[in-house]
TrEMBL record:
One of its GO terms (cellular component) is cytosol. The lineage of its organism: Bacteria, Bacillati, Bacillota, Negativicutes, Veillonellales. The gene is ghrB. InterPro entries: D-isomer_2-hydroxyacid_DH, D-isomer_2_OHA_DH_cat_dom, D-isomer_DH_CS, D-isomer_DH_NAD-bd, NAD(P)-bd_dom_sf. Pfam families: 2-Hacid_dh, 2-Hacid_dh_C. It comes from Veillonella ratti. This is Glyoxylate/hydroxypyruvate reductase B. GO terms for molecular function: glyoxylate reductase (NADPH) activity; hydroxypyruvate reductase [NAD(P)H] activity; NAD binding. Keywords: Oxidoreductase, Pyruvate. It is an enzyme of class 1 (oxidoreductase). Residues 111-286 form the D-isomer specific 2-hydroxyacid dehydrogenase NAD-binding domain. PANTHER family: 2-HYDROXYACID DEHYDROGENASE-RELATED, GLYOXYLATE_HYDROXYPYRUVATE REDUCTASE B. The keyword Acetylation does not apply. The keyword Oxidoreductase applies.
Length: 325
């Protein structure tokens, strides 16, 4: 019997593909240029599964001519490139990779908070450039102890960050759509968004990108923050209006920004954001450790194998169409 066909429209980890290849036939786009959408649609006509990647928009249009698709999975927790309702309408379960990356992303997130508040990169640059003695006072650090961290989007990663913040002596407040009934377990306190912006020394974004969160951080939001606040985004770049952030930094509405995600991504080296001289930007490396990326890729492979066998995915976003086993 021929093996099911899994389309992979870009580069993913080889070890996971070797594992997946024991169960399926893999049809992978290996060119350096992005796979043209029309070619992907053509390949999907014969496919049983899709290993999606976050640069591909996965929606009803993409899968319209893919009658055999039984499962789609992607190696990320965020899925703003996927219109999950369109997959649900076709009874296709969609698997993402929560949990396995929680601690890695929280570690990177808190590393950004600590590095930015003590201006580690700027200070290290002074040593490298032989200017130690002339170091100016504008790269003096700020204390985290006895300061307040405000988290927008308190899910598993936010909770993990809050533990690290408490270890540094910070008070943690949060804003979600709804106050969490279990907030006492995490020693965090709910605030409405405006109160959180006004009260926080560090404003931390860890929300998913949705219609509601798109450009949530605009000029008005930055005006509500303290002038000496640190703004940190580890969620998605488009939650922030980048022009408004550049404005807020240049006008002194806020003090500094530390970003794992930007809009656009990749951020060009001559982008005005970098010219503010008040940012620490890293290239979307929240989950980018060898162990975590391996765990994410293996979980994605497992979700595809299970979906092809008509079994429940380990981690499924649209549980209503997850196989029942
Ligand atoms: C995700 O998985 O959505 C994160 O952006 C990875 O860093």
């Amino acid at each position: 019997m021929s093996k099911p066909v899994v389309v992979v429209p870009g580069l993913v980890r080889k070890d996971a593909l070797v594992y997946l290849g024991e169960h399926v036939t893999i049809k992978q786009w290996t060119e350096k240029t992005p796979m043209p959408r029309e070619t992907l649609k053509e390949w999907l006509k014969e496919a049983d599964a899709l290993w999606s990647i976050n640069t591909v928009k996965v929606d009803a249009d993409l899968i319209a001519d893919a009658p055999n698709l039984k499962v789609i999975a992607q190696a990320s927790v965020g899925y703003d490139n996927v219109t999950v309702d369109d997959l649900t309408a076709r009874q296709i379960p969609y698997g993402n990779t929560p949990d396995v990356l929680t601690e890695s992303v929280a570690e990177l997130a808190f590393t950004l908070v600590a590095a930015a508040s003590r201006r580690i990169v700027e200070n290290a640059d002074f040593v490298k450039s032989g200017m130690w003695a002339q170091r100016p006072s504008n790269i003096k650090g700020k204390d985290l102890s006895r300061s307040t961290l405000g988290i927008i989007g308190l899910g598993a990663i936010g909770i993990s960050i809050s533990r690290r913040a408490r270890a540094f002596g910070m008070t943690v407040i949060y804003n979600n759509r709804h106050k969490r009934a279990d907030e006492h377990l995490y020693m965090v306190e709910y605030r409405d968004r405006d109160a959180l912006l006004a009260e926080s020394d560090v404003v931390f974004v860890m929300a998913p990108l949705t219609e509601e969160t798109y450009h949530m951080f605009d000029k008005e939001a930055f005006k509500k923050m303290k002038n000496d606040a640190l703004f940190v985004n580890v969620g998605r770049g488009k939650i922030v209006d980048t022009d408004a952030l550049v404005w807020a930094l240049n006008e002194g509405e806020i003090d500094y920004a530390a970003l794992d995600v930007t809009d656009p991504e990749p951020l060009p080296a001559d982008h005005p954001l970098l010219q503010t001289g008040k940012v620490l930007v890293v290239p979307h490396i929240g989950s980018f450790t060898d162990r975590t990326r391996r765990d994410m890729a293996m979980l994605t492979a497992d979700n595809i194998i299970l979906g092809l066998q008509g079994k429940p995915l380990k981690t499924c976003v649209n549980q209503e169409v997850n196989y029942k086993g």
